[in-house]
Write a structure and sequence with these properties.
heterodimer, A: about 170 residues, alpha+beta, NADH Oxidase, 4-stranded antiparallel beta sheet, 6 helices, 5 strands, about 40% helix, about 20% strand, globular, B: about 160 residues
């Protein structure tokens, strides 16, 4: 699909079918992430974790419930999560490197007719629980920043037009 | 251009022609930026500043003795207001990536800039001229123009682990 159409079509999908996406689709999403703009070329300071394990999801949901009291899964019970982590100390740069990888994956998911949503709230609970955090098995010094939940859509995709204030100098 | 082609073609361009991009191109780039995902739908916590005034660009360029934005004819600053969840950086980056991919699709050159933001924040005079609303802080900067040099896309690798 044309870049412009995909950019317009992308919207947050929060309801997924149980069926997991294919290995080919995952590879495509990961390849898109690797093409993102990463400051100072710090690609070796980024890490991606693909999670498709029900036990891990159950544990996450329990930790989230214990922490927030919320019954609903904060990752919308997506069959695949791609967690983005980094060992870049400076938050300003770390957040931006994760953001560009995330957006590349969201656009690619849209292009592949998959549903996806950018999420970070659930990680607040995971980071507080050592056992849950250890399940990510991240390399020493890395911390999770955000994730993409992705799967086959089980709700309509309704693109919206957004606006951001602009001034010209 | 196909989306995946634009994603793969995106490169950082550091040499530009001294020729301004058209208003139509600028408009398309900005529109793409506005369609980025913004946490909790807080588009009102984002702001875009387009700088094309040569004197002001020179003033920013003079903040240090290095050419911090490679003399692009247009500099776009993405600013954000942090709502306490620290999403300002990721939100700004999503706006940036959309603008970069749209520009790539249009055949324009871009460069994602980091250093320029720190310098602008340190220089109260320049920061004031951005005329940002209270609470807004510059997060990311994009240089954009016509590439004066062909840049081959590089293959990058990020470590991936699987939990199945």
């Amino acid at each position: 699909m044309e870049t412009r159409d995909v950019i317009k079509k992308r919207n947050s999908i929060r309801k997924f079918k149980e069926e997991a996406i294919s290995k080919e689709n995952i590879d495509r999403l990961l390849e898109a992430a690797e093409c993102a703009s990463v400051g100072h070329g710090y690609y070796d300071k980024m890490h991606l974790t693909v999670i498709q394990n029900k036990d891990v999801f159950d544990k996450f949901n329990k930790v989230i419930k214990d922490d927030t009291g919320k019954e609903n899964s904060l990752f919308y019970n997506a069959p695949t999560l791609i967690v983005m982590s980094t060992n870049i100390d400076e938050d300003l740069l770390a957040g931006q490197c994760v953001g560009t990888m995330g957006e590349n994956m969201l656009l690619t998911a849209t292009d592949l007719d998959l549903g996806a949503v950018y999420i970070d709230t659930f990680l607040e609970s995971i980071k507080k629980d050592e056992e849950a955090l250890n399940l990510l098995d991240l390399p020493e010094g890395f911390r999770p920043i955000a994730a993409i939940a992705v799967g086959y859509m089980d709700m309509p995709s309704v693109p919206k037009n957004h606006s951001i204030d602009v001034n010209y100098i | 251009m196909e989306t995946f082609e634009a994603i793969k073609k995106r490169v950082s361009v550091r040499e530009y022609f001294d020729k301004q991009i058209s208003d139509a191109e600028l408009e398309k780039v900005l529109k793409a930026g506005m369609q980025a995902p913004i946490g909790r739908g807080k588009y009102y916590d984002m702001h875009i500043t387009v700088i094309q005034n040569k004197d002001f660009l020179k003033k920013i360029d003079n903040l240090t003795d290095r050419h911090i934005f490679y003399q692009t004819p247009t500099l776009i600053i993405v600013s954000a207001r942090d709502d306490g969840h620290g999403l300002d950086k990721e939100n700004s980056a999503c706006v940036m990536e959309n603008m970069i991919l749209e520009a790539t699709d249009l055949g324009l050159g871009t460069v994602y800039l980091n250093l320029v933001i720190g310098l602008i924040k340190e220089n109260k005079d320049v920061l004031k001229e951005l005329n940002l609303e209270d609470g807004f802080v510059p997060i990311a900067a994009l240089g954009i123009g016509y590439s004066a040099k062909e840049v081959e896309p590089k293959v990058h690798e990020i470590e991936v682990s699987y939990i199945k």
